[in-house]
Amino acid sequence: MAVNWSRNGNPIITTTASGTAEDLMGHAIEIGKIFTGNMLISALPDIEYFHAKVNMLSTKDSEGNVCNSAEIHGELMEYAMGYNKLHHASPPCWLGNQEYLNAKSHSSMVFSFTTAEDRDKFTAYGPIWVFNQWCTITHYEDHPHIFACCNCRSLTHKMCDAPTCLKCGSRDHTTNTHPDNSPLHCINCRKGHAANYVNCNCRR
Question: Percent of the chain scored above 90 by pLDDT?
């Protein structure tokens, strides 16, 4: 058995030649605790899934609390005809962390299905009313997360040995002591901005 990481940062566990993914699924909770140290979010066989995105969902309920995915799922189960017959690969999830959702009145939620047919059926529901909000439904392609080195913000590795100035890539000084007369230099694209610049072409 071996463990590796996907481009999205999810652990992938490979069985021996005589084993199958189903053999491991019965131990998902115990295996998940090794990685999270807490509650397992979900464990799925490593096969292709098909995603759709519901846009412009209200993030807050009537009391101002962030809606959880179970509430959205329940609303669709009750009012979207045929939704209960679709084969879901995992619970729906918000696009954005808790801090982002607290600051926004609307966001998007991703729904995962085991077949392209079910994904397309769900997409065909849109536009749709969800908690009195008119929402569109579109296909969603999962993009890999980009991990940058904690010290130098290079996108080619996850951790180097020494802290590096993010403004020019030098190891002779820190970001806070970067000379005012020294030009900016990104270590990723080689252009005139800091390595942590969010709109760097290498991050797109």
Answer: 41
